[in-house]
Specification:
Blueprint (H helix, E strand, L loop, with lengths): L17 H32 L7 H6 L2
Length: 64
């Protein structure tokens, strides 16, 4: 393991407010979830802009 930095001798989430830990972890998780949905939206937009209805996922799954 690496040595701790000179300015911080304690871990961040070992001491301090439990509510701060919950808020930081919730914010981190929600940012990750929003990023996944954003990438999914961009993927759907790209597929819809291709102009090939048989190539889109919704068209292929309902009308094969």
């Amino acid at each position: 393991m690496s040595e701790p930095a000179e300015g911080s001798s304690q871990a961040v989430f070992v001491t301090g407010s439990t509510m701060r830990h919950v808020a930081v972890m919730t914010a981190t998780g929600s940012i990750g979830l929003m990023a996944i949905f954003l990438v999914d939206l961009l993927s759907l937009l790209y597929v819809s802009w291709l102009g090939r209805p048989p190539g889109s996922a919704s068209r292929r799954s309902c009308c094969s």
